[in-house]
Amino acid sequence: MLPKHKMMSLDMSEITRGMKRLDVLMSMRLTKGLTKAGKKLLSDTGTGISTVPIKRPGYGVLTTRQAGELRASGAVFVDGVKKAGAEGLNTEHATGRYQPQHYGGTPLFIWNHEACIVFNAPYAAKQHEKFPDKSEPGAGRYYLSKKLYGNGAEYMEIVARELKL
Predict the structure, then answer these.
(1) Where are the domains of the chain?
(2) Which of 6, 67, 86, 144 would give a disulfide with 55, using CB separation of 3.0 to 4.6 Å?
(3) What's the pLDDT tens digit per position in 92-117?
């Protein structure tokens, strides 16, 4: 064993600083990619078959809820922060009363990132899973999951493009 005054050392501080900067950069790029992919998925729910329903058969004029409220309740959250609402989706005369303002999803842990696409209307899950008959042509069940499974590779590619150095 060498005496302490003759031992070699390697200064890694510059590499450590560079790795910390890279962590910050990649986190920012990942957030940007998840935001773009989430917005694309939300947009696809209103344009691809099956679309998010605007109204159900026999839907009359109600003073408490307008046709299009389900579409108007769509939002994108990335890492718990709202990044987009239902802007750009045809929501007819919806009031947007169910548009979420705060993240209510799963707990977020450090180093984990997620995009969460939400339809916040109280009847959103029921419309997604049941009620196969819709009044709007092209609208139907599984309006969210069909896009996620059918276009998943496209959404992952959007994120990957943002992460590319």
Answers:
(1) 23-163
(2) 67
(3) 777 788 888 888 878 888 878 999 99
